[in-house]
Amino acid sequence: MAFSLSATSGSVSTARRSMALESVSEQQELDSSQNMEVRICLVGEKCYKNKQLQDAAKEFDVTVLESDTGEEYMSDEEFDTVFVLDTFEGQIFQKLMESDYRVVGPNVILECASKNEKLPFNARPLYCLAMSTLVICFTGFRNKEDLSKLVMLVHHMGGSIRKEFTQRVTHLVANATNTEKYRVAFSLGKPIMSEDWILKSWEQRNQIGCHASNEHLMKHKAPPFVACFVSFFGFNPEEQTHMEEILTSNGGQLVPAGDGAATHLVVEERNVKDIPFECNQKLRIVRSEWFWASIQIDACAAEELYTYEQTRLLETLDTARMTPGTPASGGRQRKRKRLKENLAQLAVDANRLSPTKPVPPKRRSSDFNAGLSMSAGSLSFLDDTPENVIDIADKVVDKALPDAAKSQALISRKQQVAMELLETENNYVNILHTIVTVSRMMACFV
Asked: Model-level pTM?
């Protein structure tokens, strides 16, 4: 990653120093400076000859000084001097920063004056407010030098850094998708940004009012396939070419199928029965749905939801095909017989999963509607519903209640309503299971 910006010319050791977050010494320094008389020193001709900057500095009702280097005011410990520099590089900047003086850029003075706000009590050099109120977390960056430079830019723009991803984090800057921070950020709906977001924000540091959360900067999100090396297998040439173009335009890198550098292998399961080459343990073999889901949600979808397996559907299709020399009528008869047997087995399974219970008494329409609304709202949790929720509830009641109380529990109104709701949920699961199974069997006879 190339950094051509002037503010990144400092040493990496200086950047690492700026990564110390809310330390005790910084807080003590801020507390002591708030009790001292504040004055502003405009350093360099570009600052003290800037009429707009001079007028803005006078808005704070403090002494405004002018200096070519600011060195003559560094020894005055009776004042809290705010040094204003037009660039964060060079010997003057390094000396001020290493001496823990308050250093700001012209944009901080201009923006605070325009909003009638007080100057921020900054312990680190603050060039602008483009990332004020933002809390940034990084993931997937292996080069510590590049990461240190990005952290330094965030601090120069007023942002905060967190090592761990917490609720306070507002944005995640990602250079990889296979990390826990990435999954947590996506699940919480936090913006997942690329490093270009920081660099582009810094390029506009001199624009008053420009903030990193502005729409034109928020478009620099991390692409769905950043740091993903993807291979395709089992697709027709036209479809694969189309998918390869989409992959590269969304941050992914194309590698040949079977390449050891691949991180993902996307398989067209309808055309692939076996993977003919050896795959390393870290390779994520996924179905084509993973690829399109990632494009749709504009983020890397969870691979575990789309893992490719040697599906039993292919085996079923193979067994359903007629063997050579078998008459067509005989094959159809066997298919009908097999379909009847499978449907009969489904009926047995449905009865086993739905225990017979006494017919409940008639309920008022309000109770019925309430039960329907609750059941409909809980459909999104079908994946977490046990197969035999009625049996589980019965076991809990049997263990929790003594014999004298069981009869009372069975006729309890609340217990009856709860059991009916549980049975309704169980029926939903069984119906969906039956639909999926029957549709797969019917596909064998098309």
From this structure: 0.64
